[in-house]
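For homework, think about our next protein:
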Amino acid sequence: MKLRMHILEDPSELSPRAQGFLRRAGRRERSVRFGLPMELWQVHDHAGRLVPAPMDLLIRCEGFERKFAGLRYEVRRSRVLDGERYASVREWGYDHLGTKTRAWQDPVRGGWYFEWTGERVSKPCRDLLHTDGSVGTDIDGGSPYLPIAPSLPHLIESHALTDTVATWRPWPMGALAASAVALLDGLAEVPEASWSSSRWRLSDTVAVMDHDTWHRDNPRRLTHVWSRGEAGHRQVRALL
């Protein structure tokens, strides 16, 4: 049986853009390992009982460890906040928490999900991986599983695009309505970085990303726009 290689050793399933992003920003560090055979890992089921980790959870966790463990990269971001351009850098770490890794049964989607490091910032939520392959969160550390990307490769592709347009000109969020965005020439969806709750569209000079918010009481679809070069800036200005 062919052993699965680490994503930095074999990034062939990623787009050339994402491969270039990992070559520039990615690195592999020593990762947290389980301090006991993974088969001895115990988790709490939906009733709160301590049970041996089921096979699909073991397979997903082991696959994550083989393919992504130790991966680190920083994602550059660019936004307009209160009329001012704001640039930031967020680090992501691809590790489980060893024997401290917690996992939960998913009563809605079925299967299980477990926590991983994810975005390395102070946050009330947890970054989660599901046995169905999706990436998710629990928003506040105790809510049901909320999927945010279909897979880790999708997430990396989106991060690669976010990093790419960080050097472009950002426009105020919501500056262009959906009807105006539809008039931008040459925009094509980027399927490897898009899914139902988050969509990237790209041309040579303009990038658009719209995504759902996680707010339960006020769910919205937000749109971010970036442009580069005078041709891209003119195209956006014409629709403001």
